[in-house]
Amino acid sequence: MTANSTNLTRIRVRYCECDPMGVAHHAAYIPWLEIGRTELLRQSGETYAALERSGLLLVVVKLDVRYRRPVRYDDVVEVRTEWSGGSRVKIEHTYEVLVVEPGANTPESVPFVAAAASTTLGCIDRDGKIRELPAWLASAR
Questions:
Q1: Is residue 1 included in any domain, yes or no?
Q2: Residue 134 DSSP code
Q3: Which domain covers residue 100, as residue numbers?
Q4: Which end of the chain is more exposed for a tag (fewer CB within 10 A), N or C?
Q5: Residue 68 lies in a domain
Q6: What is the pTM (predicted TM-score) of this model?
Q7: In Å, what is the CA distance from 99 to each residue of 92, 103, 111?
C-alpha cells in the first residue's frame, strides 16, 4: 500500500438509516466511514480480521464530521476514504461523503459533497495497551 491511498465505496442509503422525513440520520454516517476504512485496508491486501487475529485492534480516538447537505433515503453515496497521516501508534483518515446517484426525493443535481470527516485510530492490544502498528501498516502512512 502506498501513502495517501484512496478507496471509493458506494452505499445505497437504507430506510432504517433515515429519520421520519426520509433524511439520513447523522449517526448513519459513522458506519459508512468505517466501511470506507475497512475497504481501504482490504484494498492493501490485508483485512481487519487478520489484524485482530494478530492481537492488535484499531480504535477510534478522534472523530470529526462536518455535515454540509442532507442525504436522503435511496440516494447512492460514495465514501472517499484516504490515508492522511499518523505515527508509530496511530492512523489518520480523511473522508468525503458524496451523493452520486439521487433517490426519488433528492432534488439536487449530483454529485455533491454531503459531508467531510476525519478520524484518528489508535493501535492497542486486547488488554487496551497502546501498541505500535505492524510494519506493513505503519509504512502505509
A1: no
A2: P
A3: 6-138
A4: N
A5: yes
A6: 0.90
A7: 23, 9, 5
Among residues 89, 83, 101, the alpha carbon closest in space to that of 46 is found at 83
Angle at 32 between CA 138 and CA 74, to 5 degrees: 155
For residues 17-44, average pLDDT? 95
The answer on pLDDT for 3 being more than 60 is no
Q: How far apart are CA 29 and CA 33, in angstroms?
A: 6
CATH number of the domain that residue 19 is part of: 3.10.129.10
Is residue 61 in a domain? yes
Q: In terms of residues, how long is the chain?
A: 141
- Catalytic one among 19, 74, 75, 127? 19
Is 41 within 8 Å of 70 (Cβ atoms)?
no
Per-residue model confidence as pLDDT tens digits over 66-82: 999 999 999 999 999 99
In a domain, residue 23? The reply is: yes
